[in-house]
Amino acid sequence: MQAYKRTGNKWSVNELLQLEREYELLELNIQDIAVKHQRTVQAILYKLEAEGFIESWNEARGLNEWRSEKKYEEDDEDDEDDEEQQLTENNNDDVSGGLSEIDNLTERVWSLETSVGEIRTMVKQMFDKMVETKTNTKKRTKLRTY
C-alpha cells in the first residue's frame, strides 16, 4: 500500500520545477513521479495537464501501465490478506509515524523558510530596481523647451 503523504498539500514552485525536470528531461513515468512526490498518480496527471506538459491524460507516459496495474488490483480477490497487511502496516506506522511525521514537518518548515527567503530577495531586488528607475527618470531633463 503506497502512502501519499503530500495529499492535500499545495504544490510549491520547487516541486513544480522538479515535476517538469522529471517528466520532460528525465522522462520518468507518472508512477515513478508519484512515488517521488508522495502524491497520487491522478494528482500528477492533473498537474501535468494544468501546467501544459501534456494535452490530455491519455498522452501521459506510463498511463497504460498504471491503468493495467489498477485493473489488476481491482480484480484481486484476496481482500482479507490485504486488510490484515494494512492493519499490520498501520500498527507499525503508529510506532514510527511520530518520527516520520516530525521529519516531514521539519522538512516542510525548512522549505517554507527557504521560499520566504527567496521571495524576500526577489522583492528587495524589485524595490531596488524601481528606486533606480525612478532616480534615472528624474535625472533626465528636456533638451528643448517650446
Automatic annotation (TrEMBL):
Region (Disordered): 68-100
Residue stretches of biased makeup (Acidic residues): 74-86
Protein name: Uncharacterized protein
